[in-house]
Amino acid sequence: SGVGFSLSLQGFARGEITETVDLLSRASVRADLYGKSRFNDVVMTLASGPEFRVGGARIRPAAIAQRRWFGGDLYSESYGGSLNVLKPLDRVSQVEGELTVLQSNYARIPIQDGLLTDVNIAYDRAFSPRFSARISVRATRQDAKVDFLSTDSIGVDLLASRAFGKQLGYIQLSGFRLGADGPDPLFGTTREDRRFDVTAGLILRRFTWRGLAPLIRVIHTESDSTIPIYDFRRTRVEFALSREF
């Protein structure tokens, strides 16, 4: 594809329906752009639904629509929904769970059409006003019309963050394992991936502008796979603007 750059943008809007129910809408765009436009990869996602507060818990059901374009042509369409529940356990800890179900249809690869089901559970704890940690577990099932494109995966994330004056630093460790249902006819073997990510980030809250603070993060990835195209090492440096809610 050559040398390119990645852009992403996410926005939120909240409107009051009643005193206890809000309407929360989200829109996001991610784009990997290259000098040769036939390699451009663009994904747009829209999600909207009510936000309830029941018994101290925050509940967010949402409808989701997603489109992806590759080289300027429609690559896939996905429709479905999600259910997010966040429940404080005490003054310093909380648990959050999310279920997402999406039906994906591929314009030029119909054998890849199928249902994606993703479950994510996270536990957060603040050990002090400046130091907190999170552990999360994710399981995903991707169905397709052929077994070598149908996969199961599971991942674990560990994240620790600490404030230093007005700055906020964090380190995240991630482990991920994926397996396909059958052998890939091109490579003659069944896909099995083991992937590890190490992320270090710094939010420069000292330089906040209109609620937006600069974010710098470095992500190192090591992926070991039985399929060569998924076997790689990669280091990314990312710059962003973030807002805390």
Write the layout of secondary structure elements.
Blueprint: E1 4-16, E2 21-34, E3 41-54, E4 57-70, E5 73-88, E6 93-106, E7 114-126, E8 131-142, E9 151-164, E10 167-184, E11 189-203, E12 213-225, E13 232-242
Antiparallel strand pairs: 1-2, 2-3, 3-4, 4-5, 5-6, 6-7, 7-8, 8-9, 9-10, 10-11, 11-12, 12-13
What is the strand arrangement across the widest sheet?
1-2-3-4-5-6-7-8-9-10-11-12-13
Order of helices and strands: EEEEEEEEEEEEE
Low-confidence stretches: none
How many strands, what sense, and barrel or not for the largest sheet? 13 strands, antiparallel
Structure description:
This protein is mainly β. It is built from no helices and 13 strands. The protein has strands at residues 4-16, 21-34, 41-54, 57-70, 73-88, 93-106, 114-126, 131-142, 151-164, 167-184, 189-203, 213-225, 232-242. It has a 13-stranded antiparallel β-sheet with strand order 1-2-3-4-5-6-7-8-9-10-11-12-13, with no helix packed on it. The model has no long low-confidence stretch (mean pLDDT 94).
Can you give keywords for this protein?
245 residues, 13 strands, globular
Would you summarize the structure shown here?
By secondary structure, this protein is mostly beta strands. The chain contains no helices and 13 strands. The model has no long low-confidence stretch (mean pLDDT 94).
